[in-house]
Design a protein that fits this description.
The chain is of the alpha/beta class. The chain is built from ten helices and 19 strands. The protein is globular. The protein binds zinc ion.
Length: about 350
């Protein structure tokens, strides 16, 4: 079968023929891949920038891809899923030692000895079929077959918001009418993660403003209009806010926006990048202290967050189906993957690889 592999830390990808997986054993499912998404992490691995990328033990190559959706092709003994079910696999597999991993919260692994499909130590999903344990599968309703590939990136957003709700219980953060309608969120970055944060926060009642250094593309304008959020250029009078979500990982942008935070505000750090430097002054720290600002970094997600991601997608599938469809800006064949994996194309939000129908 066809697979897209990388040889970290070497740059580049290859489309190669690999052995098809065997029939599923007890507790296992054989999944036929429908779509896989491409994200910044994949490109970081392909360009040799992500130092933690590594193949499985005693192997030189790693199958790439952690955003996936597929159809169950065959099941092993004791499996509750059925042939034909649509599923999304979770990415991180626990260390087996720490308490968080033992209760399915490998997103909070204490030891750091976890593996991640398509990223570190475990083959990913950019291949025609994969064999996996049922416990790592999240069932997706058939009507989300074309859009469910967004479940993985969305799961990370759901986890980050989970932490926000937890942390903000330190104060009364809801408005006089019990909602979040009086709260404003600034989302830095209009990539897939920025737009998914915007959709989720808007669904939860926030006034959302998406920020970028440039004007919106046509697709970004359509999406933000349909989901009811505002797109602003960074210099265009950004209002005071209760929440800042950084999906760009840009310290200069973040430091410019911190003075906009209101008392008891929160910052979610989600984006990662490298290279840029910006000075954090004592004055900024004093301001954060005086205003009770909380900052949280967030990565990865548990299966629960994948399931709640599916719930959001089901709601959005009814509420703004066009915006959801527009999130996938191009669909390419696996043969084209080595080229599209090199760099983000102009106007791209999410590019997906089509493996089967
Ligand atoms: Zn662990």
């Amino acid at each position: 079968m066809k697979s897209i592999v990388v040889r970290p830390p070497k740059e580049g990808t290859e489309l190669v023929e690999t052995e098809s997986p065997p029939q599923p054993d007890k507790g296992e499912v054989l999944v036929r891949t429908l779509l896989t998404g491409i994200c910044g992490t994949d490109r970081g691995i392909v360009n040799g920038r992500l130092k933690f990328a590594r193949p499985p033990l005693k192997r030189e190559q790693l199958v790439l891809g952690h955003e996936s959706i597929g159809e169950v092709e065959a099941i092993g003994g004791g499996v509750e899923l059925s042939k034909g079910d649509i599923v999304v696999p979770v990415v991180r597999r626990g260390c087996g030692v720490c308490l968080n991993c033992k209760i399915g919260r490998q997103d909070f692994c204490e030891t750091g000895n976890f593996v991640e499909a398509g990223i570190r130590g475990h083959d990913g999903f950019m291949r025609e079929f994969f064999l996996d344990q049922e416990m790592y599968m999240v069932k997706v309703p058939p009507q989300l077959k074309e859009i469910g590939v967004l479940t993985e990136p969305l799961s990370n957003v759901v986890k980050a918001l989970d932490q926000l709700w937890f942390l903000q219980r330190r104060t009364l953060w809801t408005c006089e009418d019990s909602t979040y309608n009086c709260r404003t969120a600034l989302v830095i970055g209009s990539g897939p993660i920025g737009l998914l944060f915007s959709m989720a926060l808007s669904t939860e009642g926030f006034r959302v403003i998406v920020l970028n250094r440039r004007d919106p593309s046509e697709v970004e304008s359509k999406i933000t209009e349909q989901i009811g959020v505002k797109f602003l250029k960074l210099d265009d009078g950004v209002p005071p806010a209760d929440l800042v979500v950084d999906t760009a990982g840009s310290p200069s942008t973040l430091l410019r926006l911190l003075p906009k935070l209101k008392n008891n505000g929160a910052v979610i750090l989600f984006g990662t990048t490298s290279g840029e430097r910006e000075e954090l002054s004592a004055d900024v720290i004093t301001e954060l202290v005086e205003r009770n600002v909380v900052m949280v970094g967030s990565v990865n997600a548990s299966k629960e967050h994948f399931q709640r991601g599916v719930t959001y997608l089901s709601v959005w599938h009814d509420r703004f189906p066009e915006a959801l469809k527009l999130m996938i800006t191009s669909e390419v064949r696996p043969e084209e993957a080595p080229e599209v994996l090199k760099a983000k194309s102009k106007g791209e939000i999410k590019t997906v690889l089509r493996w089967s129908q």
